[in-house]
Amino acid sequence: MTTTPKPHYYGHRKRLREKLAADSSILADYEILELLLGLVLTRADTKPLAKELLKRFDTFRGVLDAPHAELLQVPGFGEALKTFWILIHECKARYVESPMRRRFIMTSPELVATMAQQRLAGLAHEELWAALVDSQNRLIAWTRILKGSLDSISITPRSVLAPAYEYKASGIFLAHNHPGGSLSPSKSDIEMTAQLHSAASLMEIRFVDHFIIADGKWLSMREQGLFPV
What we know:
5 strands, Cytidine Deaminase, domain 2, elongated, alpha+beta
């Protein structure tokens, strides 16, 4: 009775797991990707796909944050891996958000921007999120306000500020993404921020800042002098 030999990558993957357990820092980016891909593609050699992903998206971060539509264009990257990538993204976002959800004091704009970067990374459409805080800048809620199209969100002051009223927040930070990769605020971004600032003042809500997230970076409209004073 003969047995079918195991594919060559079985031994290779076992060696990678041993290296990971011994010292994870010594693995190359493509080797980490191999192991991640192998959790879904259990019966395939994942090294070629890992290297192709790094070639297309340049960096490890670029691969993890790449838009799903672009990932699906890579041969070998299918719906099962897309679902896994969504799971990875959600784990990253919740990891960053966890300490801040426990009435964490928002002492700097970077804290909100970091949450927004993780939550909005790789999205092919625009979303608007809000960090709602109390009078001491302690986080009350971190919530999605609106989900838009590929390049726009339909915003009204009422739709944005309603959650602040619901949570009895005294302050609000906003963040939305530009899927195209540009950090520059559009004319509509600036005009809408001015409207929201005025509406928040009437409701006695502090409009603290509005962030734009794009290509792994962020911009504070207040720090850029684009925020009403």
